Amino acid sequence: MLNLQKIEAGYGESMVIRNVNLQVKPGQIVCLMGRNGVGKSTLMKSIMGVIKPRSGSISYHDRDISSFPPDRRAKSGIGYVPQGREIFPQLSVEENLLLGLEAAAGGRKKLPDSLFDTFPVLRQMLHRKGGDLSGGQQQQLAIARALASGPKLLLLDEPMEGIQPSIVMEIEAIIESIKRNREIAVLLVEQSLEFATSIADYYYVLDRGTIAAEGEAEHLSEEQVRKHLTV
Ligand SMILES: Nc1ncnc2c1ncn2[C@@H]1O[C@H](COP(=O)(O)OP(=O)(O)O)[C@@H](O)[C@H]1O
Ligand SMILES: [Mg+2]
Fold first, then answer.
1. What is the DSSP code string of 67-127?
2. Which residue ranges of the chain lie beneath pLDDT 50?
3. CB 204, CB 214: distance < 8 Å
4. Which of 87, 127, 180, 213 has the most CB atoms within 10 Å of its CB?
5. Distance in angstroms (rounded) separating the CA atoms of residues 53 and 48
6. Ligand 1 binding pocket includes 42 (Cβ within 6 Å)
7. Residue 164 sits in the same domain as residue 210
8. Are residues 41 and 97 in the same domain?
9. 22: which strand partners?
10. Same domain, 162 and 55
11. How far is the CA of 51 from the centre of ligand 2 (A)?
12. Atom of ligand 1 at shortest range from CA of 158
């Protein structure tokens, strides 16, 4: 479904991502792990087209999307929740969600009811300003906005970061329900080893910009964790 081949990316003179090959299959939950600063967010931005890779190819459903701008990637069915959420604080919850619809392929016009089954708290808060929501509610809003357009691949960059434990469980439950339905594939940047191994089908460990380890999530070994993930 998503296939990265030999991706190199960075900022200005500095190269951050080197020779990365990565695949996500339909319905799969893939976890991207690695210490702070190794390039996880840079790789997510490259997939979404927010930054342009220096070389390599990105294909989605066997189509090369490397030259597509971010909005066209979104229309192709890729949803993206950047690290640190980035909702519009001055807009209402409803307006934030409607902006997510703009990316919908085939021009979906109405917010799907199922969205509020997944995020009941947002239904109650439709007319509040995004900025007045708690951190955890803003994260739910950011995920709901990405889901509003009906993506087939969801990119989630550290969705649990800086969120209180009770909401972490709610967000975990959302990812678990996505996994149960198997209609949306997820590429998840996640630091919690416990959650990653409990939910992911497959994992990649990024270390200094290259893939240092990968495999079935159930086989993520203590040794790999010690070598690549502990500070
Ligand atoms: N906008 C930017 N301009 C220049 N350098 C950046 C920018 N964003 C990130 N970097 C650098 O790229 C490297 C990887 O960052 P990032 O992809 O955010 O890592 P991670 O998400 O794994 O913590 C870091 O050295 C960081 O300082
Ligand atoms: Mg990051």
1. T--HHHHHHTTEEEE-TT----TTSBHHHHHHHHHTT-TT---S--HHHHHH-HHHHHTTT
2. none
3. yes
4. 87
5. 11
6. yes
7. yes
8. no
9. 4
10. yes
11. 14
12. 21
In a domain, 174, yes or no: no
Residue nearest to atom 7 of ligand 1 (CA): 11
Q: Which pLDDT belongs to residue 219?
A: 84
Q: Are residues 54 and 95 in the same domain?
A: no
Residues 96 and 70 in one domain: no
Please, are residues 30 and 185 in contact by the beta-carbon 8 Å criterion?
Answer: yes
- Ligand 1 centroid, distance to 39 Cα (angstroms): 6
Tokens of residue 76, six digits: 């192709």
- Say yes or no: 123 and 52 in one domain: no
Whether 162 lines ligand 1, by a CB cut-off of 6 Å, is: no
Q: Residue of the nearest CA to atom 3 in ligand 1?
A: 11
Asked if the structure places residue 180 within a domain, the reply is: no
Do 33 and 3 belong together in one domain?
yes
Nearest CA to ligand 1 atom 4: 11
Q: How many domains does the chain have?
A: 2
Give nearest CA residue, ligand 1 atom 16: 39
pLDDT for the residue numbered 32:
96
Q: 6 alpha carbon to ligand 1 midpoint, in Å? A: 19
